[in-house]
Amino acid sequence: MASKTLTHLQHLEAESIHIMREVVAEAENPVMLYSVGKDSAVMLHLAKKAFYPAPPPFPLLHVDTTWKFQDMYKLRDKAAKEAGMELLVYQNPEAVERGINPFDHGSLHTDMWKTEGLKQALDKYGFDAAFGGARRDEEKARAKERVFSFRSANHRWDPKNQRPELWHLYNARKSKGESMRVFPISNWTELDIWQYIHLEGIEIVPLYFSAPRPTVERDGLILMVDDDRFPLNGEEPVMRSVRFRTLGCYPLTGAVESEAKTLPEVIQEMLLTTTSERQGRAIDHDQAASMEKKKQEGYF
Amino acid sequence: MTTPDPIYKTDALIAENIDAYLETHQHKTMLRFITCGSVDDGKSTLIGRLLYDSKMIFEDQLAALEADSKRSGTQGEEIDFALLVDGLAAEREQGITIDVAYRFFATEKRKFIVADTPGHEQYTRNMVTGASTADLAVILIDARKGILTQTRRHSYIVKLLGIRHVVLAVNKMDLVDYNQAEFDKIVADYREFADSIGIEEFTAIPISGFKGDNITGPSDNTPWYEGTALLPLLETVEVEDALEQAEPFRMPVQWVNRPNLDFRGFSGLIASGTVKPGDEVRVLPSGKTSKIARIVTFDGDQDLAVAGESVTLTLTDEIDCSRGQVIVAAQSPLEVADQFESTLVWMDEHALLPGRAYWMKIGTQTVSATVHEPKYEVNVNTQEHLASKTLDLNAIGVANITTDREIPFASYEDSRDLGGFILIDKITNQTVAAGMVHFALRRAQNIHWQATDISREHHASMKHQKPAVLWLTGLSGSGKSTIANIVEKKLARMNRHTFLLDGDNVRHGLNKDLGFTEADRVENIRRVGEVARLMTDAGLIVITAFISPFRSERNMVRSMMQPGEFLEIFVDTPLEVAESRDVKGLYAKARSGELKNFTGIDSPYEYPEAPDLRIDTTKMTPEEAADAIIDRLIP
């Protein structure tokens, strides 16, 4: 009898597709959170596969901070169009009004644009299920979060009261007002993501590849001067050959000096590197178990 | 501080030929395993060691780890690998892992997903969860302590969840001077126990997670051990793909893909077997047959799909098929039944209520199911069978389950995907139990349903009436019995054959063995429901007056009756009013604490969300209420 052995990536792909289809079958109004990063790119690609030949039967939601890299905005619009999906962009009106920015407002920036913005957007459209691209290998608190993760009506996560997930069975039932965050790529690692992007030829933001970019160095981080809102305190931007391992708001995302211009070179560099992925992000360094606190408050 | 060199270094290949490296790694297979043991057995240390040795720990994490080890570690100046994997803040403080955490690492040959679960008895449900997806179990034993109660418990769960590969890791060999005799004795003891619970094969390895002996390669400290080290074993254990593909084809339909009128595909994860275009298939439970037309994927049509793949199938015929149904090989269909014997693992703080209806999710179908009183509960430590009327949190037992319709299924032994299920509380939506189907109970072989020649329709037509149940629910003292009495008198005058079942009266006879606990209240209503059903079969109009405080039981009774025959009548009297009347003096007793579990006082009343009729007793006299009910019954 014909048979074949599935690779780890084929197993992961099948699992993610299964999860997405369960949500579409059981939720009333699902949405996919799309942050334009490499994990989002993989998640969107998997969604196209899951529902082919139909387009994914839900919109993409970008909770925008207005401070993303220009290249990210470009790819965002292009990717949504190519997938045949509606793109919803949400900006917290209070943050817009108060001009919240990462230079003057510190952690308030993440709190208002992202945490509050996300809650507002979900409430505004009445989404009852939101796909997110979080992976369990990113951080200790995430290692224990379920694939289907429930949020109370005020968006809180209760790590002590999570539903057991057995076999391929996901319990998606919820009461009115409750919602769920669903993480279809929970079991992927950073290396899996890169290998899959390589194997499937998925388009990602060019910022992941090295190029000469205008940068300044601050608090040990190499920051890219992506537009003229970057306040230069007498500093002169220096052209450096840099790339980014993760993408967020450009004033908060540290670049690494690199010569990796192709995907295999990026993977090569990642494998030989000695620091973990989240190190370039300011958010985790605040205090021990900071991610767990943020998650309980509703951060994705 | 000692920092052992990571052994699984592939840096050379990565640096020299990244394309060759990627090519190798794209063909890796995947193994999911679970580690069983407690912190005391060095479980977290072992996992931390595997992550470290397979180079999954980066320098910044290592630096943090070294600092953490000094602050709160338990290994003195050595690196405390356990700190790497103890996740949530609360757990770190208590020094125990209290949930299921998933860890990832990879070697040249495989990607591994480790389910890390706590070992104590109060976390049995967590271990069951972790075990449900594992292909292999590593059972850890402390070489100084040998086989303990928890070893037996873990092994029993591993066997119960059908994990095929078992590794007995005898840990902390460094603390018994790598003594072969100690190791051999533990292995012999374990073999005897394993035989007794049906674990036929296992591999025993002497290790030290802390020192690294026999983890990635043979240790010089155990020259007497000729077997493989742990990681090479994990890399070479046969994965389940081949076994699953050799089974007959089964795919639960997850979603019907219908982008336009020209395309109708059935999407799902293949549970077992293989499928090709042209294969004859059958859709269950309907039993309709067709042939596979195409296997549609984003990357083009496939000529073969196998167990473990998520695909979309189209059929050559337009037959009815929707979510919850199962597409199977036409020549070897699944059984279809509505009564099963199953093992249940209870996972909720609220104990099992036999007779209550729960949602049962099995494959992609969700049906309503009631669990009967357990046949027995299993003592997870000794595997003895105990008599039990319910199952509490973490209890494992065997019980019969009845579903509200026939469903296709397999025994759990044959298929995890088609024989494993969860039970969901209909009110809280919590996952309350995991279950494993043993076999179907064929009603015909067990309780024979006596076919009678005179049908219920015949009974009803002799009485010139349509049978019905007028179900009055409401607080004690709301006026149910008074109204029910008037209704019956009026119907009798209209020449209708009725029967009044009154809560107090039934408790004098049929239900005199029942008290007022939640479980007894459920059983009380179940029995009354069954009696009412028999009476409607006899053609009667049944009037009942029961507090019946729980929504799910009222719904259960409704589901027993023919559609339209059950009328839920909410006798709505506010608590203050009922209490001020207090005809039987019960509220006073409840308030004084003399009477426990009294509805409205210290036991809940769940208001009907959509009753067929609501009687507001503050606005209507009992006469008017009775007329309203009769108008609703005979318009």
Automatic annotation (TrEMBL), chain A:
Keyword Nucleotide-binding: yes
The family this protein is said to belong to: Belongs to the PAPS reductase family. CysD subfamily.
Region (Disordered), start-end ranges: 278-300
GO biological process, one term: hydrogen sulfide biosynthetic process
Origin superkingdom: Bacteria
Reactions accelerated catalytically: sulfate + ATP + H(+) = adenosine 5'-phosphosulfate + diphosphate
Name of encoding gene: cysD
Species of origin: Celeribacter halophilus
Keywords linked to the UniProt accession: ATP-binding, Nucleotide-binding, Nucleotidyltransferase, Transferase
Molecular function (Gene Ontology), one example: ATP binding
Entry-linked InterPro entries: PAPS_reduct_dom, Rossmann-like_a/b/a_fold, SO4_adenylTrfase_ssu, Sulfate_adenylyltrnsfr_sub2
Record's protein name: Sulfate adenylyltransferase subunit 2
Residues of the Phosphoadenosine phosphosulphate reductase domain: 29-254
Enzyme type, top EC level: transferase
HAMAP family (alphabetical): Sulf_adenylyltr_sub2
Subunit structure: Heterodimer composed of CysD, the smaller subunit, and CysN.
EC numbers for this chain: 2.7.7.4
Keyword presence, Transport: no
Cited function: With CysN forms the ATP sulfurylase (ATPS) that catalyzes the adenylation of sulfate producing adenosine 5'-phosphosulfate (APS) and diphosphate, the first enzymatic step in sulfur assimilation pathway. APS synthesis involves the formation of a high-energy phosphoric-sulfuric acid anhydride bond driven by GTP hydrolysis by CysN coupled to ATP hydrolysis by CysD.
Pathway membership: Sulfur metabolism; hydrogen sulfide biosynthesis; sulfite from sulfate: step 1/3
Automatic annotation (TrEMBL), chain B:
Cited InterPro entries: APS, APS_kinase_dom, CysN_GTP-bd, CysN_II, CysN_NoDQ_III, EFTu-like_2, G_TR_CS, GTP-eEF1A_C
Record-annotated Tr-type G domain positions: 28-249
SUPFAM superfamilies attached to this UniProt entry: EF-Tu/eEF-1alpha/eIF2-gamma C-terminal domain, P-loop containing nucleoside triphosphate hydrolases, Translation proteins
PROSITE patterns in the cross-refs: G_TR_1, G_TR_2
EC identifiers of the protein: 2.7.7.4, 2.7.1.25
Entries under Gene3D superfamilies matching the protein: P-loop containing nucleotide triphosphate hydrolases (3.40.50.300), Translation factors (2.40.30.10)
Pathway named in the protein's UniProt entry: Sulfur metabolism; hydrogen sulfide biosynthesis; sulfite from sulfate: step 2/3; Sulfur metabolism; hydrogen sulfide biosynthesis; sulfite from sulfate: step 1/3
Gene Ontology MF terms in the entry: adenylylsulfate kinase activity; ATP binding; GTP binding; GTPase activity; sulfate adenylyltransferase (ATP) activity
Positions contributing to GTP binding: 37-44, 116-120, 171-174
Binding site for ATP: G474, L475, S476, G477, S478, G479, K480, S481
Top-level taxon of origin: Bacteria
Keywords: ATP-binding, GTP-binding, Kinase, Multifunctional enzyme, Nodulation, Nucleotide-binding, Nucleotidyltransferase, Phosphoprotein, Transferase
Active site feature: S548
Listed GO biological process terms: hydrogen sulfide biosynthetic process; sulfate assimilation
Catalytic activity: sulfate + ATP + H(+) = adenosine 5'-phosphosulfate + diphosphate; adenosine 5'-phosphosulfate + ATP = 3'-phosphoadenylyl sulfate + ADP + H(+)
Family: Belongs to the APS kinase family.
Job of this protein: Proposed to provide activated sulfate for transfer to Nod factor. ATP sulfurylase may be the GTPase, regulating ATP sulfurylase activity.
Alphabetized NCBIfam families for the sequence: apsK (TIGR00455), CysN (TIGR02034), PRK03846.1 (NF003013), PRK05124.1 (NF003478), PRK05506.1 (NF004035)
Assembly and oligomerization: Heterodimer composed of CysD, the smaller subunit, and CysNC. Sulfate-activating enzymes, NodP and NodQ, may be physically associated.
Protein name: Multifunctional fusion protein
Organism: Celeribacter halophilus
